[in-house]
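Handout, section 4.2: multi-component inputs.
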Amino acid sequence: MTPAAVLSAASGVALVLLSLALLLTVLRIIRGPTLPDRVLGLDMLVAIAIGLIAVIAVRTGFYLYIDIAIALGLVGFLATVAFARFILARGLSPERRTPGTTEIPQAKPRPSQAGRRKRKGAR
Amino acid sequence: MALQIIAYVVALIMVVGACFSLLAAVGLVRFPDLYTRMHAASKAGTVGSGLLLFAAGLHSLDAAVFVRALAGFVFFVLTAPISAHLLAKAAHQAGYRMSKRSVIDQLPHKEEARRH
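Output:
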């Protein structure tokens, strides 16, 4: 096999693997039970996109793509930092926190019935 | 001959980097909670895309392009832990709990810290 053929085959394999990784990450973003999971998925998506851009740069020979990858990395970092600040400012999402109490439910997806009854009693 | 060796090395690094990215994505889907998923995403994911950038720089056989690819790699290695740490700290402070299978959580939550 010539080196060019090996490179072509390797970049094809890498593109297939990266596409699979992209699909799995999108699955996590759709399923992600909480907002930080989705933010993490977006961060991972940016990382995979950078890898994809690098493989396409090897495949086509346009090395200008590497600059685009660097710019994308910068944007992804800033987006993740902004989302982290937003999560910090927002706290738990409204449906996870039992209204009227300061207690945070211990790994319960929905507010418990007892909490709701307590709130009605308080009124 | 040297060119052939470089081509083979680039092909190998590219496949290995793509494998790292795929494993990071599998970890992102399979791990039980946010904090364990963060391990997969910020370690394996960074190595995967960093290796791919390195392969692209090596393939160009051009010093300017190689340095730019290396700069991108270094930038990514520097920023990925910062963003992961910030996200984990924000999620922990906001009150997102670990999975029930985790053993220890040494960082006190906001309410517990206030009580002490």
